[in-house]
Design a protein that fits this description.
The complex is a heterotrimer of chains A (174), B (434) and C (938). Chain A is an all-alpha fold. Helix content of chain A is 48%, strand content 1%. With 434 residues, chain B is mostly helical. Chain B starts with 11 loop residues before the first helix and ends in a 5-residue tail after the last helix. In chain C, the strands form 10 sheets. A 7-stranded mixed beta sheet of chain C has the order 6-5-17-16-15-7-8, sandwiched between helices. In chain C, strands 26-21-25-22-24-23-27 form a 7-stranded mixed beta sheet. A 4-stranded parallel beta sheet of chain C has the order 12-11-10-13. In chain C, strand 18 and strand 19 form a beta hairpin. In chain C, helix 6 packs across helix 13. The chains are: A mainly alpha (174), B mainly alpha (434), C alpha/beta (938). Chains in contact: A-B, A-C, B-C. At the A-B interface, helix 1 and helix 7 of A face helix 6, helix 8, helix 9 and helix 10 of B. Strand 1 of chain A pairs antiparallel with strand 1 of chain C.
Chain lengths: 174, 434, 938
Amino acid sequence: MTRSVRKPAILLAVTAYFGVLLLIAAGLWVSWQRAGIAPDQPIAFPHTIHVSKLNLPCNFCHIYVDRSRHAGAPSLTTCMSCHRAIATDREEIKKLTRHYEEKRPVEWNRVYFLPEHVYFSHKRHVKAGVDCSECHGKVGTMKKIRRVGALTMGWCVSCHRARGAPLDCTTCHK
Amino acid sequence: MASWGNLQPLSSEFYSLLRHGLFLVLFFHLPFLGFLIGGSALSLLLNFLGKEKRDSSYLRFSQELMRTVLMSKSALFIFGLVPLLLVWFVFARVLFDASPLPWPFWAGILGVLLSGFALLSLYRSARGRAMDLSPMTAATGAAGLLALILAFFLFSAGYGILFNPGKLPLLQKQIRFFLSWNGVVKFLLFLAFFFGMTGGAILLLCGRTAEGGEGTGAEYRGLVHRFGGNLTLLATLVLPVFLLFDLVTLPEIALSAEVFVSSAVVLLLSLAVCLTLFLFDGKGEGGPGARVVFLFVLIFLAILLHDDAAVGNAYQDRIAFLAMQEAAVEAEPGKEARPEEPAAAAQTGTDAGKVVFEKVCAGCHRFDIRVVGPPLNEVVPKYGGDAEKLKAFLREPVKVNPDYPSMPRLGLPEEEIDAVARYLIETVKTGGSP
Amino acid sequence: MKRRDFLRVLGILSGSTLLSSCGSRKTKDFVSSVLPPEEGVIPGEAYFSPSTCAECPAGCGLSVKRREGWPIKLEGVPGHPINDGGLCIRGQSSLTRLYHPKRVEAPMLRNGDGKFQAVSWEKALSLVSESLAGSRDAGRKNLFLSGRTTGSLSLLIDAFCGKLGVERLPEFEVYSHSAVAEANGLLFGERDIPHYRIENADFLLTVGADILATHVSPVSYTRKLSRARIRGDFRWIHAEPHLSLTGVNADRRFVVFPGREAVLLAYLLRQVLERGPRRHGLPREAVNALPRFSVENASEKTGIPAEELAELSNRVTKARFPLVIAGGISTSHRRGLEVAVLAGMIQWVTGQIPGLVDFARNEKYGGTGTFRDMEALSARLSRGEAGVLFLSRTNPVFSLPAGFAFRENVRKAKLSVAFGDLLDETIKEADLILPLSHSLESWGDVEPRRGVVSLVKPALASLHDTLSEGDMLLRLMGAVSGEGPATGYREYLFAEWTKRFGEKGKDALLRDGFVEESLPEKRVTLNGGKASAFLKETAAEGGEPKAPVLVLAPSLRTFDGRSRGLPLLSEVPDPLTTISYGRWLSVSPGTAKALGVKDREEATVSSGDWSQVLPMKIQPGLAEGVFVAGRDFVDSPPLRTEERTGEATWYLEGIRIEKSGKVAAIPVLSGSPSQQGRGLIPDPSHKDERHHHGKESLYPEHEHKEYRWAMAIDLALCNGCSACVAACYIENNVPVVGKKDHLKGREMSWLRIEPFYGEAGNVDFLPMLCQQCHSAPCETVCPVYAAYHNPEGLNVQVYNRCVGTRYCSNNCPYKVRRFNWFWHLWKKPLDRMHNPDLEVRAAGVMEKCTFCVQRIRAAKDRAKDDSRKVRDGEVTTACAQSCPTGAITFGNLLDTESKVYRLAHLTRAYRVFEGLGTNPSVYYLGGAKGGPEREGHG
């Protein structure tokens, strides 16, 4: 058995090896894209303007954030209270107005997801003095909202640990 | 308001400086450190093997290695310390502020590193003098190496944190968060890179100077090449795996197309390295050394780009935020970027009005500056304290100033209109900003 | 590396993630509604609105738990004059009627080839109005038949019939209690069922009246009964021919053959007259006409041992507030009227009218017709007199004997219009089906008891293209008159309410869900003449049915069969036999031996030319020669109509049984009818056995800081009505798995009622749920820590962590853990019923009761808002909430002030299998019903 025979075999093996690795990398890429950390929204709502320019407090629109487990999306009447007059010429606002006039609710694409077996209450976290930005990042800087917190169990638990929040399974699992 | 640590004073410029500074530092410092760690580790290994096999060529190789990797005191200074202090500055700025780690801890790392250098240079000189070493000196070398590795591990841990700014607030609360999987992976990744690089360097540099008789030269060169080749191959096969793990352990936000592409590039380059090793093995001048080293430089660049992009992603909204703040600060000098919640009016009898104001008006109006509507301190006085006129306007808003959008009809109940009108007049009287 | 990351890599390696991660992120649950939700409604928070249960005529008040606008649970309204917080098994299941997949979703018209096809309301209504006119011209009569109807709807129906020249027929109820009503009419001139104030009695004799399960207003009676029992100095004796849930719960139960009850009552009446607390006398001729029985021959005739009879008469005569209630099976036979009359006379003589027997607040059965009326109707139909025949909320085709030929005669009507929600036998016969909205979809009110008006308020917009009966009638009137409906039913009601109660009253009704008018006390006097005349012309005995008899008992789960369509009610087993699915014929062990039938062996029951095949269930405690089958199990049995009262007989006499030797597959869920001497329900005598095992534990003690949740169940109050079981199913998204799985022993109920039969034929019910053991066998064997002990003393099961080894279940001595063998699907729209506070468990996951941890979580959340601890009574489990007897108490064992703490420290308190040292958190209060005088209840 001489090198001349062995060589191509080895070369092939090595190439295959790297091929697999490349495939995995591709897989990771795909799964990352699928995770959709910044999905397109039916109406391109710019938090930049509303939060950073206008300094609207988060609960100006997400009115349930300190009252319910859901922060809640504002009802279109809230939007229209200003946008009946303001920036009515913009394309997105026109979209909004159409929704409002045709009485079609706006179905946003979720950015933050929790599986069915998780109980999470915005109210509790807000009342415990957790700042919105600690999980949602600086939404004021995001033209399109992107997921900042991973929302994995480890992510939740590490914060619960750090803050001395309850760690019993029933706190979050239902 | 955000609480990501005492990093407040940092400016967006600082972050970009940090990024590029870090890039450069890593670019110069890491390879050096790499050679140092890789080379001295090998030299120690060879020394050991030599003792075992009673084969002088091993010892000779070991000696030569040390000479090559730890070039001169000045190199140690330029590539070892200066950049290190830079890194040190970066970490101290970002991590020290954000973490409960005391100065001594950081000083400790630095100390460990320096002592590592010192011990190794001791070892080197000893190595240079005598062919076979007393176990004592060998131990010195080992100690130095370990010190170096330890310091480097801590360095990587800190480096890992950089990619997960979300952790900084936690880090402030508990030191345990200093260690992250990403940090560990980075450590291993770089280690693999080091050895691969050293291997390449061996192929390139070592084995040429055949002292002590032509006779032994050939097989000595053989040994060296075999050694370097296998080492490089091994490292190159392992390195990509760690890179993938790095992709997994990086936080979602740190990822981006660039990150993935650069990783892919690293993979391809590693493949190239392997192929070169096989295609041109061992034939002296035509040997793969130069190519391998060159490829490894490219790999290193790719890795750095990968990290650079990741850091960029991780911090993008913070940087944007800072930029915004600065803009705001410039816009209204002397004013805070964000107003405190109006508190003054709480004591005055116009609480109801205040509530309405925050519910309805605050969306578009502030007392001090233009938002959507004009600053109230300018417009409200026009009514000269005439609540009725103001209320009339609030019921039926009419466009007054053409360069603002016209105010929508609010359709508030009478009592709320009354309350808010009185509140506005009150607050403007008592010096504007509530 | 994080577990998830590791899995992620694996997943990608196997390439599967590339596909499985395709799950699109477009869930439509993050929505900007156009308008803000109504006041007080917060998305993600449960809120309650009042309504009234329509599953049976009792009219219990409901508080409807809603989430995001969907009703997810029904609860009784505390303080409601009828059910005062309790809700029965049928009421709980009423939600599954609302979301029933097979509801009639639109008006259906029978086309040429006899198939139904959907039509528009306009078409349907115009068709009806045309044929109304048409048949009037053709000289036919338009008829309106409905089930028992009270409140404004009844008025509207009258208005409707008046306006459109429709004849309103007497309402049809299978359980019309007409014998009792007849008797009261005869004696006191009040043809109705009075309101029995059981809570104030100190002695109760019920003759045949199934007051706990189906008689008139069961939840109301149950509440009253447990109030009396909790008071302590109360004794309850029940006489019946068969074995009913009510019977087994009485302090003492006598078996009296149908027709012999009159003897018993006559004997007692005479006793009372001679030595009793007689407040009123009887006219001499009445007294003379009253048959005389010595103890001996009374006992010989009734089959009650002499000494028992003597003791009974002592109790009646000694009692200060004795109450005799006759009804049900004992008043629906040839001697039924006598029984009812004698009972009424005892009530009169003992001076409990008015008082315990209140005619002011009678149960409004006056308008309810009898079997005789239905016979008449059937005859008229057969003569082709009927033009348009309205059939509303009633199922005569199923309920009437085949002999009436109602099915055929309905077809003879020119146009039969059925109002209903599910396709039952009668609706299937109709020409036109007008789909009814569920009571949770419609406005309305009911007046189940005079002076008690209960609100029916929609909790959601109609799921399908249905209308409430009120709206239907109004629109019909509009269609006929041609100028469209004058008003909607809602406006109509509001007007009515304002008229009746005034603005304030109306608002109170809308707020509380009920109004209780104060009524003047009604003084009635015995019509001596009629009474004595009646006694003269009748004898107390004679005409007893020939044995063996088949008693057709009303069913706890389906009432008169109207609730058969609800799957949950077949899933929850019958408490006496623990049979869930299928029909059966109960037979006494003795008779079974005599016939030589095995348990569950199929046999043909026949009487005359009627016959049916039913599996036999050997039923301890049943009298010889008496067979029992649920009223809803037999198809159109040949029931006779009793001449004087028009009441139907509830039994078939002289039946024949032919066994087939074939053993039927019917799921019997209980392992054994007896305790096998394991002291699951120890009488106080073997209390000390609890200590016969050491309690050394290999594991460190759990310590509880703030809470240790515990439950106390008073077995002396629990009557096995299974309301808690249904409540648990709905609260916790427990799947309904069906007969096949039940036969494999794969039922999923987290809470079950175990009946244990004593030698004396007495039955004790043991509600068995997860005991939340302090040293739990299940926790230590879980390889993945899915079962663990939480700091509040719960054995938590982390569903998403469970991998389904089922070790925990194998190691559980109480068999309360349930395994999901399949992915159980809720047919749409039943999935709307899901409680979003709980995960719906996937296949391969073990599930169990955790004391409604979601309710605990909610309570703690509320408490945390105003930074305090959860107060006692602030949080309760679904089972405790629904329990009509209040047998279940839930609370914090660390709080020495709490009710559960007090109960757990009574000497009656014990825990099941204490010897095993599992140290459960569920305390049972032992002491058999009617045992020696006990400590007070909670």
